[in-house]
Specification:
With 302 residues, this protein is an alpha+beta fold. Helices cover 17% and strands 25% of the residues. The strands form five sheets. The protein has a seven-stranded mixed beta sheet with strand order 1-2-9-10-8-4-7, with helices on both faces. 53% of the residues are buried. Helix 2 runs parallel beside helix 4. The protein has five helices and 15 strands. The structure holds zinc ion. The site of zinc ion (ZN) has 9 residues, from strand 2 and helix 4. Zinc ion binds next to strand 2 and helix 4.
Length: 302
C-alpha cells in the first residue's frame, strides 16, 4: 500500500505491511495513530484488498509511475529501544546475517525486471552492520519520527541516495493494523529510504509461521516483513513512485502472506521463511505462484 505524506522533510512514500489477520480496508489502515496520512484524492492512496481480476478484465500487473528505483542498496540496521542492550535474543545477530546475505541472492533478484528513471533495480546490497540505540522507542505511526531516528543514528547516509535504513523497535504492535512500513525522506539533502518494524514476538497477525526451528518466532517474523519492505523500497522507493498497481499495491503487498516454498536461501547460506514478491513477467508468462487473490504472479526467490 502506498501513501503520500507531507512531512517537514518533504514528500515521502510509505507502504504498510498489513497484518495478516487484519482486513486491509481504508478504515483500518487509516486508524494508525498519528500515522502516515492520506492525502485526499490521491488515487493510489486508497487502501483496499486486491480484488481478484476477472479473466479478460484489467491486468493485476503493476505499472510504472515515473520515479526512481534503487539500482543498488547500502544498509545499516537500527535497533531502537531500551531492551536491545540487554535482551536482544537472536534478533540482532539474525538480522545482521539476513542483510549480509541479501545482496546477490535469488530473493534480491526478484525485482530485477523493474526499471525507473535511474536504471534497473539491482540486487547488490552493502551492509555496514547495525547500530543500537537504547533510548526509548516511540512514534511507530509517524514517518517523521522514524526519519528523525534514522537521522540521529546515520549521520552520513549513502550519498548516492540508495541508503536503506530499517528501524527495529521493541514496541509491540498493539492495535495497529500493520506489521511494518517503508518510506523515504532526506537527511542533509540526501535521499534515504527507511523502514519501521514493530516487535512481533507472539503476534499472530504478523507471524509467517516459520517451523524450521532455525530462528526464534520474533526473529522469523521481522525477517519476513523485512523482505516485504526492502523489496518494495527497491522497486518503489520514493515520491513520485515507480512500480505499483491500480490499487496502490507494491510488489510486496501483492504477494503478502504467501510463500514460494518452505525457505528462502540467501547468498550467505542463511535460510528464512520470507514471502514472495510480485513479478509482472511471471504473471504474464504464467510462471508465478498465486497470491492470496489467486493471481499467479508471485515469485519466491528461493
Ligand atoms: Zn507493503
Amino acid at each position: 500500500m502506498k501513501r503520500i505524506n507531507l512531512l517537514g522533510a518533504g514528500l515521502a512514500v510509505a507502504c504498510l505491511a498489513l497484518a495478516s489477520t487484519v482486513a486491509p480496508t481504508a478504515a483500518t489502515a487509516g486508524a494508525a495513530p498519528a500515522g502516515p496520512r492520506l492525502v485526499a484524492g490521491e488515487a493510489h492512496g486508497q487502501v483496499r484488498p486486491h480484488a481478484a481480476s476477472k479473466r479478460g478484465s484489467r491486468t493485476p500487473n503493476m505499472t510504472y509511475h515515473g520515479g526512481v528505483i534503487m539500482p543498488s542498496a547500502s544498509s545499516q540496521a537500527i535497533f531502537w529501544g531500551t531492551s536491545w542492550g540487554t535482551n536482544s535474543g537472536d534478533k540482532v545477530t539474525g538480522m545482521d546475517s539476513w542483510y549480509a546475505g541479501f545482496g546477490g541472492s535469488n530473493y534480491a533478484k526478484t525485482p530485477a525486471e523493474y526499471t525507473g528513471s535511474n536504471g534497473s533495480v539491482g540486487n547488490s546490497l552493502t551492509y555496514a552492520g547495525h547500530v543500537v540505540d537504547t533510548s526509548a522507542a516511540s512514534g511507530g505511526g509517524s514517518t517523521s519520527a522514524i526519519l528523525a531516528e534514522v537521522a540521529k543514528n546515520i549521520t552520513n547516509p549513502d550519498p548516492t541516495g540508495n541508503g536503506y535504513y530499517p528501524v527495529y523497535t521493541d514496541l509491540p504492535r498493539g492495535n495497529a493494523g500493520y506489521c511494518a512500513w517503508h518510506s523515504s525522506g532526506s537527511i542533509n539533502g540526501v535521499r534515504v529510504q527507511f523502514a519501521f518494524f514493530w516487535k512481533l514476538d507472539g503476534d499472530s497477525g504478523c507471524d509467517p509461521q516459520d517451523t524450521s526451528g532455525l530462528h526464534s518466532q520474533g526473529l522469523a517474523a521481522i525477517a519476513n516483513v523485512s523482505g516485504h519492505e526492502l523489496s518494495e523500497a527497491m522497486s518503489d522507493p520514493a515520491s513520485p513512485g515507480a512500480w505499483y498497481d491500480g490499487s496502490g499495491a507494491e510488489n510486496g503487498d501483492k504477494c503478502a502472506w504467501t510463500f514460494g516454498g518452505p525457505l528462502v536461501t540467501l547468498s550467505n547460506g542463511s535460510q528464512w521463511k520470507i514471502q514472495g514478491e510480485w513479478s509482472n513477467a511471471a504473471y504474464t508468462t504464467g510462471t508465478g505462484y498465486p497470491n492470496s487473490s489467486g493471481q499467479p504472479g508471485c515469485v519466491g526467490g528461493l
